Amino acid sequence: MNLDTLLLTVISTSLVYSAPLIFTALGGTFSERSGIVNVGLEGIMVMGAFGSVVFNLKMGDTFGALTPWLGLLVGGAIGVLFSCIHAVATINWRTDHIISGTVLNLMAPALAVYLTKLIFDGRGQTDILQHPLATVTIPGLSAIPFIGHIFFTNTSLLAYLGIGVAILSWWVLKYTKFGLRLRSVGEHPEAADSLGISVYKYRYIGVLLSGFLGGIGGAVMAQSITLNFSATTIVGQGFMSLAALVFGKWHPIGAMGAAIFFGFAQSLAIIGKYVPVIASVPDVWFTIAPYLITIIVVVLFIGRSKAPAADGTTFIKSH
Amino acid sequence: MRIKNTWISGLGIPLTSIFLGLLVGAIIMLLSGFDPISNYVNMFTGALGSANAIGEVLRSATPLMLTALGFAVANYAGFFNIGLAGQALVGWLASVAFANAFPGLPSILIIPGALIVAALAGAFWSGLAGYFRAYFGANEVITTIMLNYIALYATNAIVKAYMTVGDGDYSKMIPKAARLRTPFLEQLTQNSTFHYGIILSVLAVFFIAWLLKKTTLGFEIRAVGMSEDASRYAGMSPKRTIMASMLISGALCGLGGAMEGLGNFQNIIVNTALPSIGFDGMSVALLAAGSPIGILFAALLFGTLSIGGLNISIAATTPPEITSIVVASIIFFVGANYIIRYWFAKLRKPAKPTASTPVPPAATDTKEVHS
Predict the structure, then answer these.
(1) Pairwise CB contact (< 8 Å): A246 & B319
(2) Which of A98, B216, B257, B293 has the smallest set of CB atoms within 10 Å of its CB?
């Protein structure tokens, strides 16, 4: 394998594996910046993956090539519905955020497999998708010498979309009135409330956005990597996204960077076998490398990451 | 006003939550065309209808008590330990490795030895996360998640490289002297996998209850969890307390893993995913609202539902996943206890039509952070 092909493979697999994490981690960012801790991202991803796969299998003939893209939106919509549980529980019913998030993680795989068995005649695993999200070669950009080939040939369009959404999220949170209000209810809800900002409304928006983006993240995972739905479609990607969000210090660009880093570390495990010098190293080292590197980076370089001041607390409007 | 939710006590909420959780399950079964009554009857006979079933329920509750206590101890110190599964797995590996390394020892030495090694392994694994948090400020959510995966892949590699028999994906069985399952217990429970480990689990419940309520360390753990700054001002060392709670938490999880190694499986397998006793233990702790004695009963309930759930799919076409849906719903209602108490209060005293919404009495049970 020459350098060119190697770089191409590293970058394209990194992007493919980071795409689901980018969307989900951004979702988590919106929720936590509004003050609602969301450890239920894993469950939200499961529901998003389930929704997109069912849509893809059932409606594939109707929508043809458009199916997986609509599947993303369906996954997002299912994620929004599912995250309503978290929103009502934490915002109105004063449930501990960790308990409610854990309920999502516990409920989602059970509910999704239950429904899968109902829809597909008792089988807990769906057929393989006929209309997956394929890798694409971006016309124009791929013609750039060297760089074009490495970055824009057979690559994940969704990862670039995710990077775009991350930049947009950063802009929205930092420069718009909406973003300022969302952050204010996560930092000091009483102050926000005293200025007439509806804490409940912005927290609902934060949680539902995490449902939407987390659902898309799950749909990306199912439609581009596993290509079907079963109990093992989402195994820890939601937790990795949660880690990316904390790693990125609750900042959209940071969360995106951390997600890409996780994707890159995972691609190392795949690439390692093809590089002559390191191919003799036992496989297990490549498998644990992403997790080990993350710990080392967090411990040595990142240090304390500080959550929004009111993250994890329940706000009760005084009368 | 801003509140940080505290764990509640009493029996009313758990019982109501169990009822509501079963109700949610029944509604879902009705909507999907299954008969909830017969399914629930099958579930409870499957869990409690024979000596074998009861043995299986007790066996499945045994490690859950330990991992749940592990979650609770860390949580009291304000430490969110998602690493239960990884800590249990290294404990499982350590217990089996120790037992197979000293096949000649009598039970009196090999069982305590394997348990101690398992507890140390679990404590080491959680201690890493505790150390990184206490001395480097590294967030435990990241480190424990990462340590889970490292535990899974490293354990599998070690089992494959050093412990498997032939081409199998499992180690050889541990020597008879180290086994917690005995012919006597098998005879007693119609060949169930029930084992003596439950004695350790129940002892651990009372030990942790005593530790948290009656000792200085327990007081410090709870104080640090409530406010790190205040406890430092009072002369406690949050770093040391975090480390202590994390070591205890990991040791309990390691023992939970040893229950699988010495009791349930009596060997170690190459796991495709993290052992379920980790996340299930977290569910049990949340179900029990953190109370050690509550964990004893919550683990038994969890065992009843999961073992009974297996019977549902044998007797009917209903997918067994319904039991996990019920468990998740029960935990949801335990967490949402505020709204249950609010409804109770309304039922007892019909709301008078006043201009302002009455503040429910439940609100006084929560701890105010700011006002």
Answers:
(1) no
(2) B216
